[in-house]
Amino acid sequence: MKLSHLLSAITVEEVIGNEEVEITSLECDSRKISLGSLFVAVRGVNVDGHRFIPIVTVGGVAAIVCEELPERLESTVTYVKVSDSAVALGFLASQWYGNPSRQLQLVGVTGTNGKTTTATLIYEMARLEGYKAGLLSTVVNYIDTEAVHADQTTPDPLTLNRLLRQMVDAGCEYAAMEVSSHAAHQHRIAGLHFAGGVFTNLTRDHLDYHKTVDAYLAAKKSFFDNLPATAFALTNADDKAGEVMLQNTDARRHTYSLRTRADFTGKIVESRLDGTLLALNGHEVEVLFTGRFNAYNLTAVYGAALLLGWNPDRVLVDMSRLVPVAGRFQPFHSTDGVTAIVDYAHTPDALVNVLSTIRDIVGGRGQIITVVGAGGNRDKGKRPIMAREAALRSDRLILTSDNPRDEEPDAIIADMREGLDARALAATLCIADRREAIRTAVSLAKEGDVVLVAGKGHEDYQEIRGVKHHFDDREVVQEALSQL
Question: Which residues does ATP bind (predicted)?
Answer without folding.
Answer: 111-117
